[in-house]
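Supplementary Text 2. Reproducibility record for the structural model of the 75-residue chain.

All settings were left at their defaults, and a single model was retained for analysis rather than an ensemble. We include the record here because the model underlies the residue-level annotations in Supplementary Table 4.
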Amino acid sequence: MKKKPVTLRVAKNLALFELQDFIDFLHAVDPELNPDELTSLTAFVVHSLPKMFTTSPEMLNLLKEIAQAIKNQRK
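Retained model, structure tokens:
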């Protein structure tokens, strides 16, 4: 049985859920940060991700493998 494709709305909700989990993780790392500071720190990390991936061949390869697995689900 073929899987139904994930809609953009579902994908956005998943991304938001994961961002909130990351904000919670950052709060555990530094409980003194307030919600605005945690969200700003999250934005900084997300902004920095492309550089982090391009400077780490292992992480970039993992990203490519995951992307390929997602594309393979289309078939």
